[in-house]
Design brief:
heterodimer; A: mainly alpha; Cytochrome Bc1 Complex, Chain D, domain 2; two-stranded antiparallel ribbon; 10 helices; 4 strands; B: mainly alpha; Cytochrome Bc1 Complex, Chain C; Helix Hairpins; 4 domains; 3-stranded mixed sheet
Chain lengths: 255, 457
């Protein structure tokens, strides 16, 4: 039966070879960017994270939530308690009126999490041409390439290559979509969030990618900081066990 | 248990004598993993992996119990509760990364352990029940790992659950009612998640129970060894403690170093990014793949692409996938060669290294790749080899190998084939005198070697 399947698959490969797709030919791998948090001793660059938060605040938050991150977590970025409160107060979070019980919004506090810009997915869809802008809390871990992918996507907007349209007329970027070779199917609904030909765009894209990495993996520094001593301990422990293994077996190794 | 020359437990302290009379737990431990269990002295590092598997199981149980204290087994809360563990729980990130990578480490050491069993034919009598219990443990592990992967309720959790439970739907007539009954609905949802959580907590303890049986069954004949020849005297063995506790301690150290590198420096290396996206029944991921340790079996499942007469391809794939594991249960009776170790089976060894091992690696690669026609064709050919290896090649090899193996011009040439322990052969008058390991001589005799070898120490 397997042989039968194999013969039919082989026959199909010859008789009906899979047609090349625009995605296969024009999709590009993420750009290589160096970040301060890479490597086993990597740390976040506080100034970069603060600039990244600024980019999120000015650009991304209009459409994307960051709902897993609490304002109090921003203390990790080097903000003082008062500054955290000020930042939180710039966001409106859903709440209930304590007198009437009616739904309303109030200013955020340090204990709140970043709110979602839309009340629900239907509202998000309605406001965005049918596409739901994804929450960014885990974006840096939810795509192959992580922060480098985010950077590549933000700086990757370009005009659709003419040869693509010539070769795959069906893959022409549709209305309301934008060509970006780093996106899985090459066309996404998000308009370029950072101006394509601005000198600041590259820096901003890098900063916000680093910030989103922090948002996705806030304990990275704790992990690196405890990993090194743990590894040193384990290497010493293993060395000791190896020595005792040798000592214990000393009389048995002679044949 | 095991050998007549095993050390006997003799409690010295009055309290231990009292204990021994009332509840002989120290005696039990002494006989199981203490000085009372004689072990062949010539074991290589592959024999470390049984203990390492046990250590991995304990790590999973401990980290898992802590995670369960903070996890919410509800489809509306599960994903966020995992993020709560990662962000707010003290050292929660460490527990979760240790548990997720611990599963991978568990499978790595168990696969090496199974590899050891296959190459050195540890499955042969008198240890066939040890092997059967091992397969049961492996099946339980796969079920536990699958259900554990569903718990974070990410995209791969949901779609993995959908694909795997959908396999039951392939069974004719009763398939779909069974699938609905297992899931508690038509698609994975809260009912499925909640019962998977319950079973994911239960099964590790079932595994622990079967591990006890596995070790118990092992202790009756005693451990096998790389030459495959049974030990004959006290000379050939050492007490488990301190000799193998020391060696296993070293193995555990190396295991923990690899584990720590993964957990602290590459915690998401073996994971699928899609599982950091909350489960969404309305959006199918481009490529649904299980965790790496299921890839070879997933490739066999996907290898059946065409209906065969009235049998649907999906059903064939499901049957083949289960058969690929269940056929291992028959291995002790498929492989009839009286020689155990792969070192002394030249033909078996060729098929093992150049057939079975590449085949499993290729299947693994195909199972993790996007299923294009080329990938499917390669996995079909590899699946054919996988089944042929166990059902056709192995029975034939184990019959013909015996006859051809000893046609060597001299004892020296024969022993050269019996590598790697070919040291210490000297000519002594008209006889060949062998001063190597006694087990090797026993092995040559086992094969009915035509040359006369005189063994002397």
């Amino acid at each position: 039966m397997l042989g039968y399947s194999a013969i039919r698959t082989g026959y199909n490969m010859v008789s009906d070879p899979a047609a090349a797709t625009a995605e296969e030919e024009f999709h590009q791998h993420v750009k290589s960017v160096s970040f301060s948090f890479e490597g086993p001793t990597g740390k976040y660059d506080r100034a970069q994270l603060q600039r990244g938060l600024q980019v999120y605040h000015e650009v991304c938050k209009a459409c994307h939530g960051l709902t897993q991150v609490a304002f109090r977590d921003l203390a990790d970025l080097g903000y003082a308690e008062g500054q955290v409160k000020t930042i939180a107060a710039e966001y409106n979070v859903p709440s209930l009126n304590p007198e009437t019980g009616e739904a309303e919004t109030r200013k955020g506090t340090a204990a709140d999490k970043f709110p979602s810009p839309f009340a629900n997915d239907i509202a998000a869809k309605a406001a965005n041409n049918g596409a739901v802008p994804p929450d960014l809390s885990l974006m840096a871990k939810a795509r192959h390439g992580g922060p480098e992918y985010i950077y590549s996507l933000l700086t990757g907007y370009q005009a659709q290559p003419e040869e693509l349209v010539k070769k795959f007329p069906d893959s022409k970027t549709g209305p309301g979509l934008h060509y970006n070779p780093y996106f899985a199917n090459l066309n996404l609904a998000m308009a370029p969030p950072l101006p394509v030909d601005d000198v600041e765009t590259d820096r901003k894209a890098k900063d916000v990618s680093a910030f989103l990495m922090w948002a996705a993996e806030p304990k990275l520094e704790n992990r690196h900081k405890s990993g090194i001593p743990a590894l040193i301990f384990l290497i010493l422990f293993t060395w000791l066990t190896y020595m005792s293994y040798q000592v214990i077996w000393a009389d048995k190794k002679k044949h | 248990m095991s050998f007549p020359w095993a050390n006997h437990y003799e409690p010295q302290h009055p309290f231990m004598r009292y204990m021994d009379e009332k509840l002989p737990l120290p005696r039990f431990i002494y006989n199981a993993i203490g000085g009372g269990y004689p072990v062949p002295r010539n074991l290589n590092y592959f024999w470390n992996f049984g203990v390492l598997s046990g250590a991995a199981l304990m790590l999973q149980i401990v980290t898992g119990i802590v995670l369960a204290m903070h996890f919410a087994g509800n489809s509306a809360l599960a994903f966020d509760s995992v993020e709560h563990i990662m962000r707010d729980v003290n050292s929660g990130w460490l527990m979760r990364y240790a548990h997720a990578n611990g599963a991978s480490m568990f499978f790595i050491v168990v696969y090496v352990h199974i590899f050891r069993g296959l190459f050195y034919a540890s499955y042969k009598p008198p240890r066939e029940v040890v092997w059967l219990l091992g397969i049961v443990i492996f099946l339980l592990m796969m079920a536990t790992a699958f259900m554990g992967y569903v718990l974070p309720w990410g995209q791969m959790s949901f779609w993995g659950a959908k694909v795997i439970t959908g396999l039951f739907g392939a069974i004719p007539v009763v398939g779909e009612p069974i699938q609905t009954w297992l899931l508690g609905g038509f698609s994975p949802d809260n009912a499925a998640l909640n019962r998977f959580f319950s079973l994911h907590y239960l099964l590790p303890f079932v595994i622990l129970g079967v591990v006890v049986l596995h070790v118990w069954a092992l202790h009756l004949p005693g451990s096998s060894n790389p030459t495959g020849v049974p030990v004959k005297s006290e000379e050939d063995t050492v007490p488990f403690h301190p000799y193998y506790t020391a060696k296993d301690g070293f193995g555990l150290g190396v295991f923990l170093i690899v584990f720590a590198i993964l957990v602290f420096f590459a915690p998401n290396f073996l994971g699928e990014p899609d599982n950091y996206i909350k489960a969404n029944p309305m959006s199918t991921p481009a490529n649904i793949v299980p965790e790496w340790y299921f890839w070879p079996f997933y490739a066999i499942l996907r290898a059946f692409t065409f209906d065969f007469f009235f049998v649907p391809a999906k059903l064939l794939g499901v049957l083949a996938m289960f058969a690929s594991i269940l056929l291992l249960l028959f291995l002790p009776w498929i492989d009839t060669s009286p020689v155990r170790s792969g070192h002394y089976r030249p033909l078996f060894r060729k098929f093992f290294w150049f057939g079975l091992m590449p085949c499993i690696i290729v299947l693994g690669y195909c199972g993790g790749s996007h299923a294009t026609n080329g990938v499917v064709l390669v996995s079909q050919l590899a699946s054919v080899y996988y089944f042929a290896h166990f059902l056709i090649i192995l029975p034939i090899v184990s019959r013909i190998e015996r006859r051809c193996r000893c046609r060597t011009p001299s004892p020296k040439a024969c022993l050269a084939r019996l590598r790697p322990h070919n040291r210490g052969l000297e000519k002594n008058g008209s006889h060949y005198r062998f001063s190597g390991r006694p087990v090797l001589f026993g092995h040559a005799r086992l094969l009915g070697h035509p040359h006369r070898l005189q063994y002397g120490v």
